[in-house]
Every structure is written in structure tokens, then in C-alpha cells.
Amino acid sequence: MNIREDKVGSFTLLAVSGRVDSLNSETLKDYLQELGKRESRVLVDCSALEYIGSAGLGALLILLKLIRKQEGTLRLCGLSPRIAEVFAIAGFDKLFPIFLDLDSALSAGA
Amino acid sequence: MERKDPESGGKDLLEENRRLGRENLRLQRAVEELGILNEIAIAINSTLALEKILDLITQRCVPHLRAEQGAVLLLEEHKEERPFQTLCRVGDTSHKRLPFRLDDQLAGWMLRYRSPLRINDLGSDPRFATGAGDIFSVHSLLCVPMVCKGRMTGLLAVFNKKAEAGFSEDDQRLLSIIASESAQVIENARLAEKEKTLLRVQEELNLARDIQGNLLPKETPRPAGYDIAGKSVPAKEVGGDYYDFLAVEENRLAFCLGDVSGKGLPAALLMANLQAAIRGQALAGTSPTSCLEKVNTLLFRSTSPEKFATMFFGCLDTLDHVLHYCNAGHNYPLLIRDGVKPLRLSAGGLALGCLESFPFEEATVELLPGDRLIVFSDGISEAVNHADEEFSEARISELVAANRDASAAELIEKILQEVSRHAAGQPQMDDMTLVVVRRE
Questions:
Q1: Is residue A110 one of the residues assigned to a domain?
Q2: Residues A10-22 pLDDT 10s
Q3: CATH 3.60.40.10 occupies which residues in chain B?
Q4: How many C-beta neighbours within 10 Å does residue B120 have?
Q5: Which of A58, A94, A95 sits opposite B307 (nearest CB)?
Q6: Predicted ipTM?
Q7: What are the angstrom distances between the C-alpha of B317 and each of A48, B223, B248, B251?
Q8: Per-window interface: A 58-87 vs B, CB < 8 A
Q9: How deeply is B241 buried, as exposed, middle or buried, from its count of CB atoms within 10 A (0-12, 13-18, 19+)?
Q10: Among the partner residues A58, A65, A94, nearest to B261 by beta-carbon distance
Q11: pLDDT tens digits, B16-50
């Protein structure tokens, strides 16, 4: 798993790549917990995400709750069909605004 | 004939006598040293109890080196702030205890230089400048590192020599030998204690496994015209998966399969909570959606923000053969029917515990004779082989389709066997749970 943070326009862009499994999800959780307190507009780029397990979804859930508390914006983009299905099965597609790619996520209103 | 000057002969003799006396003293000391070394070796090898070993070492060093106090400090792994732990301190009861600050200073020095330290005038030693009156009771000290397989494991120190000249080089040599003799024995005792702790944890985990096993249904319901089975295999002693059968009323059977995020004990604790909540709601005879809506709120309120549970909840009418179900974020169960594509039971909503309230959906499906419903956790579908290839839903469907006449229990065993064949020696990464409902 790799995490890269950038600034793109008004968003903090977080690229999470590789495999997020039960062995490294704590790292992601700690990172997102800190990020969710520091930033209010976050876009998570999942285009290089190969696998995410339930612990990884839990880490994203923390981020969502922290951003919502700040009344901020959290968007996901670039989910591969495999990752999109993981989100859909858990019902997380109803929880997170998911965009096809980076451009559409950045250009969407608000 | 040669005559010796009687005067000079007497001198020689006197000199010889003195030399022998010195030699005698030296030998006596050597014997004493060997004696104490032997005594320590026997004593510390007679037990594996760490505290006793440390006691024995200090108890013998203090009187032999004519010190007032002695201490063994052991280096604690993974503790950067206070790397040493004083485990034993023995001294004359008539004297005050050593100030603990000195321990820290000694420990710091030893970690840095890893060589013996002998100070006979502590008050004027700039290396150990301490606040006035702080270490008033210590005037001399001798301290040596304990090294085991190239790694410093602790230090052995004695304080306040009861002699004007202070600690000698001989004292230092002896203490060094004792330290090197003891280091391995102490290390072994520490490892033995660690192992004992691990064994205790293991015992507790085994107990927890039994308790969790008892939470699973002890009997499988057998409504007329149906063959039902369930099984859960945790990846560790305990897991976050579970399944349950609940006879709601006559001709209505509720069943569920849940998967709490995470693994091991934390997941197991939450699983027990979830199981109790579901039982409470289901026995009240509510519909799958209202049951899951209430449990969702309960779970949300009693868990940390990253925790959630996926759950498939079904309620089967065994007279009209209709299954009412709600799938809260769980892997889609597969309804396998001859001649048609497997049906995935996806209606429901979000995993439980994510949001305080969520409007779940309910759907119904009719079970025809020969239909097999396979509810499974992701430990089954996501079990990977050496090439990182998942067992997959497709393999489950194929396997069930190919074993048309197998009973529900046999299907479960077949699936588990195939998963283990697929994983071929890879460790089981996740809990595996299955419920099979087969209409005869």
C-alpha cells in the first residue's frame, strides 16, 4: 500500500494505491484519522488501488465521519470494477460520492 | 666450606616468608573468587524464576565485594523512554535505598559505553553530577554491563565499598565475570517468563474460542421439506463471523450470517454483541428490515467509528416457500437453481453500524424444489491461492451445481474442502462461514 498526498485546486488529493489488507489497514486508518481533522475537502483517488478489505473500508468510514463533522466534502474516484463491487456489496456506494475519474470529481459542483 | 652470613640468610627467609604470605593471600582470594563464582553458577542454574535468579546474584555479590548495596537492571526491549527496569535491589537493611535517579544515569552511561565503570569518589565525578544531597548515600560504585550474544541485556552494579580504598581492579574483574556468567541465564529466564505469559494468553484464547463456539446454534432446524446446515471456521482462535438459526414462529424460520470487520478478539467481542442484539430483535418477531434497522442503530452506538458488520438476514416461510430477506452489506448469497444463472440476493442496504439510522430494503424470493441457497462470508470467496487468485463466487456456484444430490451439510464440507485445496497450504487469512438451505 502507498499513500500520496497532493493539493489540487481546493481539494486535498489522496492517492491510495496497492493492496489495503488487514495487515496494513492500521497505517491507513491512522493517516486518515489525522487527515480528517486537518482537511475538509478531500478527494481519494483509487485508480491504483488493487484490493481493499473490510478493515480498509473501516478506515475510509472514519474519514467520512470526520469530514461530515466538519460539514466538508469527501469524494472518491477511479474505482476499478473490482473495487467498485467491493463498495457496492458493503453498500458503501450509498455512503460515498463516487466519481468515474479525477476530472469529473474535480469539476463536480460544490 | 661456604658460610652464609647468618644475618643475610635471615633476611632472605623473611623475604621468602612474606612472598609466600602474599602468594597465599592471592591463592586464598582466588579460591574465594572461584568459590563465589561456583556458588552463583549453581544457584542461578537451579531455577528458572527470573526474580529468584536476580536475588541470588545480588545477595552473593554484595557481601563478597563488601558493598552496601547491589542492583541488577535489565534492559527492556522496545522501550525507548525508560529502557531499563530495575528488577532487583539488595542491600544492608540498615542503609537507605539508592536514589532512583542514579539508576537512570548509570543506565544511560552503560548503554553508551558498554564497559565497566568503577568510581570511588562519586561526589567529585563530573560524569555523574547530581543535585546536592541527592545521592548523599553513595560514595563509590562498580558497575558492569551484561552482554548476551553481542546484545547488551542489562547491568550489574554494587555500591559503597566498605573499605577505605574503594572498589579494586580485582573487584571489577570478578563482577565482570559474574555478569557474563549470569547474562545468558538471566536471558533464558526472561524468555521462559515471556513464554509463560504467551501460554496464559493462549489458554485464555482457547477459553474464548469455546465461549464463542457455544454462541453458535447447537442444533440445526429441520423444517419439513428442507435440509439446512451451517458452519463457521475462524482463522484464529476466535473470529468475527457467525451464523444463527431462530425459530420465529411455527412454519417461519429466521436465519442470519454476519461478518464483523477486523479479526481476532476485537472482532469476536463485537460479534457476541451483534449476535445478542439480533437474537433479541428476531425473537420479538419483527421483519428482517425492522430487525436490522434496530440492530444497526444499537451497533452504531456501541462501536468505534471504523467498525461495522455485514449481515444477511432471511426469514423463510416453510409453508409457502417464500424467503423474505434483507442484506446489510454482506456478500451476495447465491441461489442455485437448475438450468438458470445463479441468483444473487443483493437487496438490503448498507453494512450495519456505519450510520446511526438507515432505511433498509427487503426483498422476497421463492424457493423451488431442488433450490440451494448458499450464504457465505468473504473468507470463502476471497481465499487466495499462491498466485493471489481468489476462490470466487463462480467456483462456489459451479461446485454447488455439480453436486446436485449432496445434502446441505455435505455441500458445506465440499466447499470448505475445495477452498482449502485452492489455498493449498496458504494460511487461512479470514474466518470462513457458510449456511446452506436446500429445498428438497
A1: no
A2: 999 999 999 998 8
A3: 208-439
A4: 16
A5: A58
A6: 0.92
A7: 46, 10, 10, 6
A8: 58-59, 61-62, 65
A9: buried
A10: A58
A11: 999 999 999 889 888 888 888 888 888 777 777 88
Distance separating alpha carbons of residues B298 and B419, to the nearest angstrom: 34
- The upper half-sphere exposure of residue B338, i.e. CA atoms within 13 Å in the direction of its Cβ, equals 8
Chain A positions in Cβ-Cβ contact with residue B330 (cut-off 8 Å): 89
Out of A61, A90, A95, closest to residue B305 by CB:
A61
Q: Nearest C-alpha of chain A: how many angstroms from B125?
A: 47
CA-closest candidate to residue B350, choices B298, B302, B311: B311
Residue A60 is assigned to a structural domain of this protein: yes
Grid cell locating B339: 438450468
How is residue B353 written as a grid cell?
Answer: 453500524
Beta carbons of B262 and A54 less than 8 Å apart: yes
H or E element that contains B275: helix B264-283
Query: Taking CB atoms and an 8 Å limit, are A91 and B429 in contact across chains?
Result: no
Domain B27-194 has CATH 3.40.50.300: no
Query: Shortest CB distance from A89 goes to which of B306, B331, B430?
Result: B331
Residue A20: give the domain boundaries.
Answer: 2-105
* Chain A environment of B346 (Cβ under 8 Å): 89
CATH, range B208-439: 3.60.40.10
Task: Tell whether the model's pLDDT for residue B411 goes beyond 90.
Answer: yes
Amino acid at B220: T
Q: What is the domain count for chain A? A: 1
A103: amino acid identity, one letter: D
Whether B86 has a pLDDT exceeding 70, the answer reads no
Give the CATH number of the domain where residue A51 resides: 3.30.750.24
Residue A83 included in any domain: yes
